[in-house]
Each structure stands twice: as structure tokens, then as C-alpha cells.
Structures
1.
Amino acid sequence: MLTEATVRPATITAWMTEIAVAVRAQRDRLTQLDAAIGDGDHGTNMVRGFDAVEQALAGQRRDLPPGQLLILSGKTLVATVGGASGPLWGSALRRAGRSLGDAAEIDGAQLAAAVDGALAGIQELGAAAVGEKTIVDALEPAAAALRHAVGARQPLARAVDAAAAAAEEGARATLPLQARKGRASYLGERSIGHQDPGATSAALIMRALERVVSRED
Ligand code: ADP
Ligand code: MG
């Protein structure tokens, strides 16, 4: 039942670790994608940021509420990542964290609201809409899929799998798009034909959540 509390503080810590593992494994690919339409630092940025998040969380009490862990993670990203992805994901995680308040455990509906909050944080800061070849192209469909699956009372692991699959599809769909926001937009039509690095790492972030949730189920 989805209304059961399923995401605990340990889930958030495990999620951040899983993201760090994923971006480390995909660092070269993210960097290559960014080299094609940006400045070639996206892999480095994400690895630096989530390494720092892992370290910051390791020094915390194990029982801090999920919301507080997300806020700390977001602040850490802002403090450690120089590229656009740092403030964007920083704002995303802080907004997600704030939406959870001090709840000790969260259910599927709260998780969906947190992902909606993450998307809102990114759009508030970056003002990108779907189709502009950014993180939003992966995160918006992921948030919608999660909301929909939770509303349909699917088990949490399946709901998060639907969200991750939607993010992956959204990331792939950036390939033919022309970038309208961020550094890649300077390339104009030459940004067409490459998958967006930020949308690609956003899909890694959602898949990392799915791995953690399905492990705990
Ligand atoms: P920088 O562009 O500063 O080098 P990164 O390489 O770490 O930063 O991140 C690049 C990614 O950031 C892009 O691929 C894109 O997905 C994302 N991005 C850039 N601008 C925006 C924006 N305004 N809204 C959402 N995502 C954005
Ligand atoms: Mg870059």
C-alpha cells in the first residue's frame, strides 16, 4: 500500500550514495556529452558535488529527518559545484527537503510532492521549460510519472521505476532538440544531435532512487 511510510532517513542517505556511485561510473560519458555541447565539465561537477554530499551526510546523525538530509545535501552541492548544475540541483534538493518538513518517514505522495518541489526549484532558478534541452526534459516527465503512479496506488518501487524510465526517455528525447538555455544554447543549431548532459545525469539521479527504493521494498 502506497500510503504506508516507506522512505526513511536511511533511504535518503542511501540515495545520495547511489547517485555518487552512478555519476562516478558515468563521469566520462557525462563529460563527453558536455564536451560536445558545453565545456566538458559536467561529469567532474556531478562527481565533485555528490562526493561532497556523501561526506557531509556521513558526519550527520543517522536519524535526521529526510527533509533535513535533503536540505543539507542541496546546500553542499551549492557550496561545492561551480557549474550550473550545482546551484540547480542544490535548489532542487533544498526545495524537495523543505516540502517534507520534519516528517520522520514519508510516503509515496510525499515523495511525489518532493520531486515536484525539486522540479519547481530548478525551474525557479533556471526558467527552463520542457523542450529546451535541459535537466527539465528529464525531471518533468519523471515528476509527472511518479505523481500519476502514486495516484494510481502503485507500489512505491513500481512508481519510482516509472519515474526513472520517464526520466531516461526524456533524456534520450533531448538528442534532436536545440538548446535554448544554459551554455549549450550558445551553439544554436549546432547543439542539435547530442543528448543533453544535464538531462542524462537527472535520469541517473532518478534511477538511483529506484535502485534504493526497490532494494528496501
Ligand atoms: P555548466 O553549463 O555551467 O558547465 P554543467 O556542465 O555542470 O554546468 O551542467 C550543464 C547542464 O546544466 C546542461 O546540460 C543542462 O542540462 C543544465 N542546465 C543549464 N542551464 C539550465 C537551466 N536554465 N535550467 C535547467 N537546466 C539547465
Ligand atoms: Mg559544463
2.
Amino acid sequence: MTGGAPEARARGGRKGVALAAVGAQWGDEGKGKIVDWLAVRADLVVRFQGGNNAGHTLVVDGEKSVFHLVPSGILQPGTVNLIGPGVVVDPRVLLRELGELEAKGVLRDPARIRVSGRAHVILDWHIALDKARDEARAEAAIGTTGRGIGPAYEDKVARRGIRVADLLDPAALRRAVDRLAKEKNFELTQLYHWPAIDPEALFEEYVELGRRLGPYVDHTGRILEQALRAGKNVLFEGAQGSLLDIDHGTYPYVTSSNCVAGAVCTGAGVGPTRIDGVLGITKAYTTRVGGGPFPSEDTGPKGEWLGERGVEFGATTGRKRRCGWLDLVVLRDSSIVNGFTSLAVNKLDVLSGLAEIPVATAYRLDGKLTHEFPMTLDELARAEPVYEVLPGWDEPLTGIREYGALPANARRYVERIEAILEVAVDMISVGPGRDETIARRPLFGPRG
Ligand code: GDP
């Protein structure tokens, strides 16, 4: 899309790039690293959905930081970071992350992080209910992170949620807490036999959290609009991944928000005509956390090997991830739903040392060959992957910075992905560090 071109002319030609970067698989694709890399060129980095169920591991100068809520652009000096209305905010977590960043000297100016007053708040009730319900589901657990994200989105859609702006208005907060207390405590105590949460203590605590969060609360939509008009580069940072999307993912093993590129519009407050490109972020193989069918999973020693080489443990929960081969049926589906204009392939270095690398290009479902991602979970569970086996390479890739310097078979692997998906692989990641990246084409122009 090239929306905004007439405006750009009116401004004397400068048009920044508005780029959405989203997960193309079941999350954990290494979005944090890519976003951190792109943020060097971004003026604004915007979170538009999810909450602190995301976990972004960034390695800068050998130092590891894990953020759950703060946009990944925060480590870039001069970048403004927005938490849009589509995000659900746990104020305690946000304040803890901001405190850490202040202590490290990364965050000196509150203007570098702005939180939408319209974003919904995660309350203690949501966290308790999340845990209580997952415990009660036992075997049928969908593997929530227990951070209250789902219950907070439920209250938002049920039109009884509490928003960040309410925290700054004790009278409004009082009314909202009183409205919720009876129902939440009834569910907790009667249905799950959990202790009730004292609404009075909760009110006092959230007033205090609101007081501390106040300097960061803003109308993020306006900041975004001004930045787009001024020809700034804007990066929309997705959390989770396409297959975890509430509508387009492998329901019910999904997250409670929309996380495809379309959610940028609703979650940040920007029209689809203003978005110039969608970068799909994928691993060079596939992982999945929790339950649900996963056709290209390798439960044998090779899958174990992938998990160990790729350090596949959740940044948020520490849970071991299930591992398997790249699934191009999954990626084709996610490319359609998101409208990818380019791809970033992460963790290509993990595959070094394999003689052969299988890649799923189709499924066999009830005896028939299909390239389509199945409609239902039952069908997905019955789908058997059809593999194309590509030749591997032995060389370590981590030191490589130029595409042409990759082993021929690594290039062949990347080019096969491009040919099947008909999307260019513009970035390749060969290690966790910011500089361990191969950029084939620039996605952003210079900063505005
Ligand atoms: P995210 O939530 O999508 O950002 O993904 P996670 O942070 O959960 O998982 C990515 C993990 O892989 C982190 O530990 C990163 O440091 C690491 N990582 C990211 N890119 C690469 C890469 O290209 N190679 C290797 N070996 N590790 C990577």
C-alpha cells in the first residue's frame, strides 16, 4: 500500500515508512530481536495488542534483558514507544519494567514511553481467575500464562472493564471496582473455591498504581497520527503469532486477542491505508508451546536436538517448547491473513550441522494432498505433513553478515521459502545478538 502519497507530496516529499512486524507462526519467533534491530531506524515503536504474556528477550552488548510489556524500541535512544489501546496493561508489571529501565539509565525521559488511557487494565481478579480456571481445567488446560490477560479481554468485550484513564480518576475507579467486586468474588469463591479479593484494598492499591503511572498516560493515537504526518518511521510490534490469533489461529489453543497485522489498525488506532508494509517473522523451523495439533512436530531425537540448539524455553514461563520442522502450509496461511510484504527468517544458525532438512510443503488429509491449512482442529490433528527434503550445511552461520557469504545450501533453503511463499526474505537472523543479522534489503529509510 502506498497510502499517504499525496500528503507526502504536500510535505515536500518525505514519507516515513509505517511497518508492521508480526509473528508468522505460534509465537516465539524472535520478534523482539528483529524489532530491536529495526528500531534503530524507527522514530516510533508501537505495541497494539496482547499484554505481559509476551516475552521479548533482547541481547545488546552481551547483556540480556527480558521485557513483557514495554515495546522493544525502548533500548534505542531517541525512539518513542507507545502502548496502544488494544493492549491490556498490568500496571505493576509496567511500573516494574519502567523502574528497571530507569535504574539502568536507559529511560530518563517519561516522554519516551506513552501509554494509552484507553488500554484496559489487568486487575488482581483477572490474575486470580486466570489461574483458578486453568487449574480447574486440569488436563484440558489451554496453557495460559496465568497473567490475567484473557480475563481482562473478557471484561473489555463485556463492557465492564477498567481502563488506564480510570486509574487516574479515583471516583470513576471506585464505581468500576464496586461494579465488578460482587461478580468477580462470586466466581472466585463459589465456582473455584479461591479466597475473595478485598475490593477496598484493591481500590487503594490501584489508585496508587495510577498515581505512579500518570506521567506516562497519553492519547497515543494522536502521537501516532502526528508522527505519520511528519513523515516519521513507525514500527508496529506484534506479540504472539498468527496461529495464536483469536480468529485466525488454532482455536481454542490461541491467545485472547487478534495478533495478525489487521489488529494494528484497531489496536493502535490507524487506518489500513496508512500501513506500508507487513514483515512476517518466522523461525527457520517451528516451535509451539502448550497443547494443540502441530503437524510438523518432531518428537524424536532431532526435535530434542532442535530444542537444545535453539534454547527453546519460554521467556515468560520457562516452559519447554515443542519443536519441529518449518511448515510452509502454516506460513502460506499466515502470509495470506497478514498480507506479508517481506519475511524475516530467524535462527537459521540453529540448523547448521544437519545433513538434511525436511520442510513441510503440503499435508495429506484423509488420503488427499492439500496445500491449504485445514479449517478445523480435528482436521489439523489428522493432517500428515508432506516433506520436501533440502540439503543441509555444516558451517556455523553466526559470524556471517552478508547474504552471499552464507553456505550455498543455506541460501538454497532461504530461496526455497521465498519461491513457495512468493514473499521476499529481507532479513535473516544468525544469532541472538543485535548485530547477528543479515539485512538483504532496507525496510526503513533514514529516521525522520
Ligand atoms: P519473541 O517473543 O518472538 O521475541 O521470541 P523469544 O524472545 O521468546 O525467543 C527468541 C529467543 O531466541 C531468544 O532467546 C533470542 O535471544 C533467541 N534468538 C533470536 N534470534 C536468534 C537467532 O537468529 N539465532 C539464535 N541462535 N537465537 C536467536
